[in-house]
Amino acid sequence: MSTSFLNLTGDEQQKTLGQLICSAAVTNGTVPAQVVYLAVINIFLSITAILENTLILLALHKESSLHPPSKLLLRSLAITDLCVGLIAQPVYASYQISLAQGHWSVCRFKFDISFLAGYILCSMSLWTISAISVDRLLALSLGIRYRQVVTLKRANILVFSFWVVSLGAAGIYFWNYLLTTSYCYILISVCMGTSVVSYTKIFLVLRRQQTHVENQSKEKQTISPLNMARYKKAVTSALWLQAALVICYMPHGVVEALLTFFGTTSYFVLARNFTASLVFTNSSLNPILYCWKIKEVRQSVKGTVQQLYSLLRSPFSSRVESTNSD
Question: At what angle do helices 32-62 and 266-293 cross, to 10 degrees?
């Protein structure tokens, strides 16, 4: 049986997404087994997201070579991913278990909580990834003026505005789900469009500079060869983050669009659970990309892990020495 999001109930009140999904009419016995497996995967990934992003935040706190506004954006993304592991993913796994067990009232409550948390945090991820692409473009186009224009205060205001917009858009969910969905489509279009334009301009400028590098005088060069090499690595790192986000988010966007236009069925519910879990996987994937592509973060993470290992090992070593002395 299929129930469209655009349909109204008898009392002409539009149903929320949780009411449509957590329904015996939709989950007619074909969903539960697979959903339980996804719940287990989400619990495991929530643990990895917590551990990985905690390490990244510790590493960024120690790292001093990154430009403060750029580091703030990376820290904001890591905090968002950490919150996914702490809040959104465990609640979503709990919702999946309730869905499999057929506890509909509890299922709807947990779905609404996980939807709001995931919606806010995913919105923050999209805004932040887009801001990182613009930051890289400004670093190239402004040259020596970059540190004067892109300040820590302005970056803080920008990140704060992202949180306000994300929270405000999520609050519309209980009033009108279709408006919330519309915001999501607009957000994806704006953020992806901004990133595409930014990286296109970056590669055009880099290619032009590489072509004419021998003819440029030192006075006209906006970035030294050493800084240019470091800048290219930073752009590559940002591109990997962007690519991971697109891969993890795109399938869910397609499923959400199909659900909106064609309504809910047991197969769409299963597909939505799978693609939403893929979205959350991005929070465990980003820290790996930090360590792989950003040398400073990788070295800082190694140092942090070694320190933690030493702290955990020292009590054990003390006990062994005490036992041997006795």
Answer: 20
